[in-house]
Amino acid sequence: MPSNPLRHRNGNILTPAGFVRGTVHWGEAGRITHITGQAITEFEARDGSAPLILPGFMDLHVHGGDGFDIMEGGEALARISALHARHGTTSLLATTMTAPFADLEAAFTAMRTSSHQPTGARVLGVHLEGPYINPAMLGAQPDFTAPIDLNRLQQLHAIFPIRLITLAPEVAGNQAMIAPLCAAGFQVQIGHSQGTYEDGVRALNAGARGFTHLFNAMTGLHHRAPGMVGTALAHAEYAEIIPDLIHVHAGAMRVALRSIPKLYCVTDSTAAAGMPDGAYRLGRHTVHKCLGGVRLADGTLAGSALTMDQALRNLVHTLGLSLAEAALRTSTHAADYLGIPDRGRLTPDAWADMVVLDAGLKVVDVVMEGFHPLPFTDNGKQ
After folding, report:
1. 3-state secondary structure of 328
2. Is the pLDDT of residue 252 over 70?
């Protein structure tokens, strides 16, 4: 038995103050105790002489992966969380589809029994993407939209915690429910909406804070009708965006990056993530992966095959973000949006959630709450 119970990982560590060439230490409880080393520039950190250690990715919009869909229950959540952990995601929200209440109840029950797997990303709760959306803006959602029923929401929440709710504020009854939902402890964000700019402003004033897959399945920006995109660009502090370079043009992403201070990345990943081209399940739909994208048979985009490590590389290699800013967009801002100060950053007392990258920004190691959830080389143990 070693006299020092701390575990450690050496490398070029991204802290809130910048990069440090040194060592991150954590205790048996899985929380960081201290970081030692010498401050260096990002240019020096990326010289390839040592691995890069970043906060583990946080993904607030995950439908599937490894051939499995959240809505199918069984071992799906365990397989999905393991797939995303292999790509550096250390925490996520399982995201449901618009579906009848019985389907949602079954999915929530399955998540409750399989959410604490030691071999995958930590599942922090559920992103309920529908059924409170506009039937004219379904995107790839099945047509099972429904009015908000707070009692049924609480039933689902009692089974497995709901952290985010996507809704369309212009749908009859939804605007009036935003304040009660927020008062009940739910985070509300706007999506799958045909609403106007004014609808969006009223929703934000009522307590909504974010936007679901910005630009997609919402009214676009026109100079005489700014739409829901205009609301987000003019007023939002937070919004999620899918940086697979298919859902949103790089130029539009640059507009959003300049306009929304804490824009953060999600994958909106489906069962096709980590899988070859072919047909996969998305809720009650069959979707098809081809040429890097995922679509319904009619060509409608239907989630993605993106993983968060590729999201990071797209931000850095295509959009030209610094690695420090890209890490904010793939970890820290999402944690702040959910009000979780001990994830999404490498600081003392935070969870030891880390992704270790090589000079090409490929994942070589993952640490989740101080443990290696997958069979990477365990260089952190003494």
Report:
1. helix
2. yes
373 pLDDT above the threshold of 60: yes
At residue 376 the predicted structure's pLDDT band, cuts being 50, 70 and 90, is low
- pLDDT score at 2: 39
Q: 283 φ, ψ to 5°? A: 60, -125
Q: Is the dihedral of CA 33, 38, 41, 47 positive or negative?
A: negative
DSSP SS3 for 373: coil
DSSP state of 71: G
Dihedral Cα 259, 261, 265, 266, nearest 10 deg: -90
Q: Would you say 283 and 242 are in contact if contact means Cβ atoms under 8 Å apart?
A: no
What b/e sequence results for 78-97 when a residue is b if at least 16 CB atoms lie within 10 Å of its CB, and e otherwise? bbbbbbbbbbbbbbbbbbbb
Q: How far apart are CA 242 and CA 231, in angstroms?
A: 18
Among the listed residues 69, 268, 309, 336, the single catalytic one is: 268
- Annotated active-site residue 277? The verdict is no
CB 300 within 8 A of CB 334: no
